[in-house]
């Protein structure tokens, strides 16, 4: 197995509710190797999504560290953390988070705009558009470029989200219940796509899921219970 691209070291997270402090994560250690497909299982409230947000630099831990290529990242200035997140981490969510007024192509292009200055994007706009078209074609949506989310099926929307996540050529993709909003047949197609992408690109995937069958297809399964890794 390759060295870890992403690690959590004794990560804890608490939220304050009035005067009460609610612990969600209680010292989680986790490593994700380059090219690994890792499933994260646990009941609702176990802390899976919270851990994903911390690993993706969307939320800081209360204590503990997140390492990228062995280097701590939460102590970096906010702009450096944002660049690291946009350049090296992709996100796929259960409810897609696509902008309804934009076409599939525009939703993917928006991800590229987040990683460059306006001037740089303007200079490279033709290449960026072609890269987005190529990515959508790779996920099977080459004929749906100008369709808005409301004109796409659930599986097609999730494929747009995957294409968006891939545009910056990330090292790791964090997927939170990526098939939780899909029927079983559509979910199977999305799962097969993710496994194919991992095989072709050697991208690491951390999949939060309740699906035991999906978990057993992964290289490893990590289970969270009450904010602690139990297996």
Helix-strand makeup class: alpha/beta
The CATH architecture would be: 3-Layer(aba) Sandwich
CATH class: Alpha Beta
Biggest sheet: strands side by side, in what order? 6-7-8-3-9-10
Quaternary organisation of the protein chains: single chain
Q: Termini distance?
A: 19 Å
H and E string:
EEEHEEHEHHHHEHEHEE
CATH T-level topology: Rossmann fold
Radius of gyration: 18 Å
**Strand segment tally:** 10
Mean pLDDT: 90
Summarize the structure.
The chain has helices at residues 48-55, 78-88, 104-113, 118-123, 125-138, 154-166, 184-201, 212-217, and strands spanning 4-17, 20-33, 37-41, 63-68, 71-72, 89-93, 172-176, 204-208, 220-225, 228-229. By secondary structure, it is α/β, with parallel strands linked by helices.
Provide keyphrases for this structure.
single chain; 231 residues; alpha/beta; Rossmann fold; six-stranded mixed β-sheet; four-stranded antiparallel β-sheet; 10 strands; 37% helix
How do the helices and strands line up, and which of them pair or pack?
Layout: E1 4-17, E2 20-33, E3 37-41, H1 48-55, E4 63-68, E5 71-72, H2 78-88, E6 89-93, H3 104-113, H4 118-123, H5 125-138, H6 154-166, E7 172-176, H7 184-201, E8 204-208, H8 212-217, E9 220-225, E10 228-229
Parallel strand pairs: 3-8, 3-9, 6-7, 7-8
Antiparallel strand pairs: 1-2, 1-4, 4-5, 9-10
Helix pairs in contact: 3-5, 3-6, 5-6, 6-7
Describe this structure in words.
The protein has 231 residues and is α/β, with parallel strands linked by helices. It has a single domain (35-58, 88-229), classed as P-loop containing nucleotide triphosphate hydrolases (Rossmann fold, 3-Layer(aba) Sandwich), CATH 3.40.50. It has eight helices and ten strands. It has a six-stranded mixed beta sheet with strand order 6-7-8-3-9-10, with helices on both faces. Strands 2-1-4-5 form a four-stranded antiparallel beta sheet, covered by helices on one side. Strand 7 (172-176), helix 7 and strand 8 form a beta-alpha-beta unit. The longest helix is centred in the C-terminal third of the chain and has 18 residues, at 184-201. The radius of gyration is 18 Å and the shape is globular. The two termini are 19 Å apart. The model has no long low-confidence stretch (mean pLDDT 90).
